[in-house]
Amino acid sequence: MTRTSVQENPRSRRFISLVSAVGLSVFAFSFYQVLTAPVQLEWILLCLVTALIVSNTDIQLPKIPSTVTLDDTFIYISFLLYGQWPSVLLAGITGVACSLHYSNKRRVMPFNAAVMSLSFFISSTIVSSVFEKPTAGDLSTLILATESLALIHYLLNSGMVSIVSALRRGRRVRKTWREGFLWTSVSYFAGAVAACLVVKLVAIISFYAFIIAVPIMAVTYLTYRNYLDRIRASMSHVDEMGELHLRTIEALAIAIDAKDEVTHDHVHRVQIYATGLARLFGLSDAEVEALKAGALLHDIGKLAVPDYILNKPDRLTPAEMDKMKSHTIVGAEILSRVGFPYPVVPVVRHHHERWDGKGYPDGLVGEDIPVTARILSVVDCFDAVREDRQYRKGMTRGEAISLIRDNAGKMYDPEVVRVFLEHLSEFETEIAAQRKEIRPLPQKAGIKRMAEPRPQGTQPFEQIRNAHREVITLYEIAQTIGTSLDLRDMFAVFSSRLRDMVNYTTCVLYLRRPNSIEIEAAHATGRNADRFKGKSLIIGAGITGWVVANRQPMYNCDPMMDITTLKLDVDPPYRSVVVVPLVKDNEALGAMALYSTEVAIYEADHLRLAEAVGKLASDAIANALHHESAEAKALTDPLTGLPNARALRYQFEEEADLAQRHGESFTLLMMDLDGFKRINDSLGHQAGDNLLREIARVTLDQVRTRDFVCRYAGDEFVGLLQVGPDEARDVVQRIQHSVDNYDYGVGLTGAGVGISIGWASYGTDGHSLDELLLAADRAMYADKSRRKSLAPSGAEPSNRDRAHIM
């Protein structure tokens, strides 16, 4: 007998109906034959013993969905002593009795009774026609006839049940029969020999000798059952060790794959897809187990591939691709040393082969690729492309199906693709049914997780995955800001990537002002960013001021201490904050603050991550500030603090570009001091330097803040004014009046210091800087001549060295 779950389909239902109709007809006819024949009390006693006692002594064979009973022995005895019809009736009765053990007894009882009656009817008919009626006198003929009866009955009974089971599961009949009934043949043939011995005893002693045989067979049954129980216990231990072995492999494999963003759910789904396809293709149990292990271990060789290649967002170079391809060979070599009892190594080595022969590592073509590797390549690709990875977004279900279908006959076995897509909905139903039992992990405050639920026990793998993401994120931050010298761009990069690791509402970069006791919110992002920008704190005030002063981080303080000190109005209020100092060479550059309205309490991990980013930011900020300082010095006159001639060219290009785009004009002033040489000669160069600084300050006071004034060379100054010719004349007069009448202090008062100025208009007098400088220089020379002619005797303006014109 076989104990199987009943999940009928049209084919199995039709076969069951046919067998039940024929078998029950035979059973009913045998019952009629027994009723119309003389009553045989011995046979009735045999039936009672068989139905009430023997039918309840079944033995479940280990790892086989079949049972062994002593029923058949008593049916053979009935046939040898009382003929065909009583025995067919007894066979049907034992089928009914055995069905009482099933939970769905009402459904299986008619079929079991029909199978037993029909199979014994056919087998007894064949044996009766060949051997007529065997007797106990000829023991050899008796045994031969009974063994033939057992063989035919065994083949018919197991065959019909195997057909039903195979139709239910869509499997091959031969494979189903071999797995479920091959080992039960021993009970049939042993029962036939036992029946012959009992019949011999009955012939020598009397009918009731069979009662003597009952305890003997009972002892044999109990011994055999005890033996099978020990085998079952041993096999259970082996199964437990095998399961432990598989779970260990699974844990290690997922831990390894975690760095490549492979999730436990991905592995679980691939196993369901692969094993389902394996059964549809009728693969052996060993090949199914190989696919289960292959779903876990096929990428174990990526241990030999650097992380920057695994997670590179761009196309791999040929050299990087060769390194990536090596993971199949490395994985196969690793697993070949394990000694798996099923063929895992071919799955791992060949899961990147292509149907058209363009795959790797061996370039196998078509069916030369192991079928297990062909199955895994399809299902692994289909599921992997639907998951988000660090370097790409996942596809939709429809996009993944199109990808697989479009590559059938190129990358993938077209038959595998066809069967997979035909049964995809069935696989997804099975996955969904299993996921109903999975509860989601609790989410920690401040840490972002994927929205989908995670199975219990995957926290360690999530931690491994998060650790790997941290490495990748920090590497990308370091790579990006390490090549940038612009603070604004740099802050945009690390604040954006930091959000992937630590949840915040507002991120603020505070920088220390030069030669000041204040720190300023130089950059901010997130909610209320505009309110923070430009605000300043005294070092030591608030949380951030304390962090800068003491160069120590703080977190989970009241963020409103900063908000109050900055005199900001924010709604809703912040609930928590993390502030880390930015320090380079023991010098405090500022601080980075993360304010949150959602996170009630930040954890130590958040502080650690913020400090790691802060360390990278400190190095980059120090380089950027140094660059800004060097650039400022390169474009600044060190004596007056005004821009220099190099800065003039940069500024002119900007002004000219704006003028061209908007159709406007601007004015260039050329200014030269009168009497400056006499000051240097009579009072010394230090007095001359002081005079230049004062002239620069006086000149800046007479122009707007948006206008540009630089020290061009020696005692020459150049200005770029956003005014027309008429307004330029007014500005020139104001500058000359201020310079001529300014009190320059002891030693300079009354020294006859003045300034000659000429100007030129962009577009009218030229379009290039050199053209405007030349035109303004001519006008300034004319102004100097005019001023010289008007000056009192002995107060002539100084001669200029005009070799400075560019």
What does this structure look like?
It is rod-shaped, with a radius of gyration of 48 Å. Strand 10 (708-713) and strand 11 (716-721) form a beta hairpin. Helix 2 packs antiparallel against helix 3 and helix 13 (318-336) packs antiparallel against helix 14 (344-350). Mean pLDDT is 79; it is low at 1-6, 438-458 and 794-806. The strands form 3 sheets. A 6-stranded antiparallel beta sheet has the order 5-4-3-8-7-6, sandwiched between helices. The chain has a 4-stranded antiparallel beta sheet with strand order 10-11-9-12, with helices on both faces. The chain has 29 helices and 12 strands. It is of the alpha+beta class and 806 residues long. The termini are far apart.
What are the low-pLDDT stretches, counting only 5+ consecutive residues below 50? 1-6, 438-458, 794-806
Quick check: average pLDDT? 79
Neighbour order of strands in the largest sheet: 5-4-3-8-7-6
Percent helix range: 55-70%
The separation of the N and C termini measures 109 Å
* Silhouette: rod-shaped
Q: How many helical elements?
A: 29
Q: What fraction of residues sit in β-strands?
A: 5-15%
Number of strands: 12
Largest sheet: 6 strands, antiparallel
What is the radius of gyration computed over CA atoms, rounded to a whole number of angstroms?
A: 48 Å
Structural class: alpha+beta
